[in-house]
Write a sequence for this structure.
């Protein structure tokens, strides 16, 4: 493909205009919407979980508090080196007797064979007798580009954890274990290999988060919207946060990281990697390619601007429909689907959604293919495709383009519209068809190439 004819663009169309600044990074993908949008995604997004609370601080009280967090009975340092077994008889059976002197010593040692013992990289006891430990397993088998089924491509090392991590909490009235993933490389200075709640079976719920940090960070503080706060010292780039877990904590938080040069504050949204374009580029496989460019318009840049402007207007609900030019070839069932979206459970996600054209090619002076993504409060939906054709009234889009996005938020066009994919998508995924007694010839997923070619 001639790269000069492939036009990268950065144009936003909101549905309706965003009620938040673009600096906000969106949170996780709702499961129902992920299922609906999975057709065009061949590789899952890895995401850092939202953090929880303070490390080896005294066990928090039974109710959330905004007061200063409890102070650990001992500083949060990795356990000292020892060749003798742990003096605690009920030490974790998977822990190694050889305890490293630092986190780095544990996770940079030569990979052990399958079934090898985990290494303790953090151990601390709270004032009321809770012992908190972090154990890291041996390195997993290194992945090569061929393992992902895409020639020449593999995700960056920071995209997913490379080792199993276990966190154990035990004491007079609580025994629990939970699992996470350990990152050998950290993206943008912060990784959250574990976020969990423990202790529910013993009637003592606790919020637990583990942070891996690059750079000079001495202290980590976390504050949830419900007022629960915790802090801990950072040792060798590792921080374990433990706090009261009673009541709901599926909410936003702020994280303060303090070092010699000051304090950096991060929100939960700041740590959501799925909406970070640089992270997506490094961690997601190349999207199915747009068709090869054809004959170009006399002024490609002007036509690109016209298409992206009308694409943005298509989703702009601040402009009444009667004041818009005709942007779709057919609006049958579209307005009803829009009403269903804003009357349903995904109305908030629809209000926050921002459509971004990311790449466009002209296959003729009057036809274009483009790839776009949607940022919303429920996550990022990428590798979405559309087509546009030039008419006497200007560039228009097929009804299916709007219907395929409304369906993500529970708005189904009637009659249904099949999603739009370029020929390369079918080369990668094949034609997906369903069969039933009422449809013996099968109904295939997505427009086929001939249908789109006929429309264009």
């Amino acid at each position: 493909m001639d790269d000069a004819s492939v036009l990268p663009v950065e144009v936003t169309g909101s549905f309706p205009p965003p009620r938040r600044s673009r600096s906000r990074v969106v949170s996780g993908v709702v499961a129902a919407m992920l299922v609906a949008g999975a057709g065009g995604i061949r590789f899952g997004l890895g995401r850092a979980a939202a953090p929880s609370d303070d490390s080896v601080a005294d066990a928090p009280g039974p109710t959330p508090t905004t007061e200063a967090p409890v102070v650990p009975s001992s500083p949060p340092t990795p356990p000292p080196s020892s060749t003798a077994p742990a003096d605690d008889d009920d030490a974790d059976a998977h822990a190694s007797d050889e305890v490293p002197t630092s986190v780095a010593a544990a996770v940079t040692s030569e990979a052990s064979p399958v079934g090898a013992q985990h290494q303790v990289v953090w151990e601390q006891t709270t004032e009321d007798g809770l012992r908190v430990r972090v154990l890291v397993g041996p390195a997993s088998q290194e992945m090569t580009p061929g393992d992902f089924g895409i020639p020449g491509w593999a995700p960056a090392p920071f995209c997913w954890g490379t080792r199993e991590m276990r966190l154990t909490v035990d004491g007079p009235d609580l025994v629990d274990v939970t699992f996470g993933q350990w990152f050998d490389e950290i993206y943008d200075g912060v990784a959250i290999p574990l976020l969990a709640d423990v202790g529910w079976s013993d009637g003592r719920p606790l919020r637990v988060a583990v942070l891996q940090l690059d750079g000079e960070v001495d202290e980590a503080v976390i504050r949830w919207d419900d007022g629960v706060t915790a802090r801990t010292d950072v040792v060798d780039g590792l921080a374990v946060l433990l706090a009261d877990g009673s009541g709901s904590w599926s909410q936003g938080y702020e994280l303060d990281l303090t070092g010699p040069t000051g304090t950096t504050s991060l929100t939960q949204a700041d740590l959501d990697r799925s909406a970070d374009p640089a992270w997506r580029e490094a961690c997601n496989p190349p999207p199915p390619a747009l068709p090869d460019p054809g004959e170009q318009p006399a002024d490609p840049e002007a036509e690109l601007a016209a298409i992206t402007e009308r694409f943005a207007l298509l989703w702009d609900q601040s402009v009444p429909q009667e004041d818009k030019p005709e942007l779709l070839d057919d609006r049958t069932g579209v307005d009803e689907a829009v009403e269903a979206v804003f009357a349903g459970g995904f109305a908030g996600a629809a209000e926050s959604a921002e459509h971004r054209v990311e790449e466009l090619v002209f296959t003729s002076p009057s036809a274009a293919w483009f790839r776009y993504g949607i940022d919303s409060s429920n996550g990022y939906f990428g590798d979405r495709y559309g087509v546009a054709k030039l008419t006497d009234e200007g560039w228009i889009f097929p009804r299916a383009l709007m219907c395929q996005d409304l369906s993500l938020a529970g708005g189904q066009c009637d009659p249904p519209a099949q999603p739009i994919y370029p020929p390369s998508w079918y080369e990668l995924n094949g034609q997906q068809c369903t069969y039933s007694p009422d449809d013996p010839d099968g109904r295939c997923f997505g427009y086929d190439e001939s249908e789109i070619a006929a429309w264009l």
